[in-house]
Design goal:
Podospora anserina S mat+ genomic DNA chromosome 6, supercontig 2; 2 domains; alpha+beta; Meiotic_Drive_Suppr_Kinase; three-stranded antiparallel β-sheet; Kinase-like_dom_sf; Transferase(Phosphotransferase), domain 1
């Protein structure tokens, strides 16, 4: 999740069940929320005493057997086609739900008591409830993990499944794929469309690989900048890179010239003083007295 903005509560109508749940916006500037679903005592009782019956009821009445947290994705009024398209894609990929894509629980209507005070229309907003997949976005993975050959294989496996189902994801960005238990889960199918029978999803996979390479390049440049954040002055010389610094234990040109000058002065001083008949200080002379 990118943000955790508290948005108060939302009234959800899902099938025969109506409940109010706290909501947190998880993506900036998008109507996508994390809902805390209130517990259902009847469902808990059935799960404990009649688990076999629950499996059948979950398919018939999913609203009564929701997990404690779900994703609420409201329809954007300016992108109604994308909303319908995503629902159709989830239904088409039903066999991948719960494993390689989030599970779609169903369509709901949402009423926001606070927002409706300032709206002319009081109509509820259509939305879908999705499984809250606990994973890490590929965009947030460390760079060294992005370049892992195993991860690239998992991405290829994901796209092979989409190709088999005849679907193009439509938005191949790293933030639309999650790493979960050594597999890739794809999310956000608003821009998906049917895959023509004569091509594969290779073009989208190459786009993702290009984004990974770009991230690796940026990380390498940032690493170099941290090593040498700016110009460095060494012995009066201006250097920008660590490689420009003299190796440890070596003597610079300026230092060498300074040492030679001191050696020459030390050798000449006794000769100069001997011309005047003395090498050291005058007898009986004290310093600092």
């Amino acid at each position: 999740m990118e943000d955790n903005e508290d948005c108060g509560t939302k009234d959800i109508q899902f099938g025969f069940r109506r409940f109010r749940a706290p909501a947190k916006r998880i993506y900036a500037n998008r109507n996508v929320f994390l809902l805390d679903v209130p517990p259902n005592p009847i469902a808990s009782w059935l799960l404990f005493w009649m688990p076999q019956l629950v499996r059948w009821l979950q398919r018939l009445l999913p609203e009564w057997f929701l997990p404690t947290t779900v994703i609420l994705k409201e329809r954007n009024p300016t992108k109604a086609d994308s909303y319908e398209n995503e629902i159709d894609t989830y239904l088409h990929l039903r066999s991948l739900q719960g494993t390689h894509i989030p599970r779609l629980f169903g369509e709901v209507t949402v009423s926001d008591p606070h927002a409706q005070r300032y709206q002319i229309s009081k109509r509820p907003t259509p939305a879908i409830l999705l499984e809250n997949v606990e994973g890490v976005s590929l965009y947030n993975l460390p760079t060294e993990e992005l370049g892992n050959p195993r991860l690239l294989e998992e991405l290829e496996d994901m796209y092979n499944l989409l190709t088999e189902k005849g679907v193009v994801h439509g938005d191949p960005k790293l933030h639309n794929f999650l790493r979960v238990d050594k597999k890739i889960v794809a999310i956000d199918f608003e821009l998906s469309y049917p895959l023509p029978s004569d091509i594969t999803n290779e073009h989208e996979l190459e786009e993702l690989k290009s984004e990974i390479k770009e991230r690796e390049k940026q990380a390498q440049e940032a690493k170099l900048e941290r090593l040498v954040p700016g110009p460095v002055i060494v012995n009066g010389l201006r250097v920008r890179k660590r490689t420009d610094l003299p190796p440890s234990g070596t003597t610079t040109h300026n230092e060498q010239r300074g040492d030679e000058g001191l050696s020459t002065l030390g050798a000449q001083l006794p000769k100069v003083c001997s011309r005047h008949g003395r090498v050291g200080p005058r007898p009986g002379t004290t310093y600092g007295g």
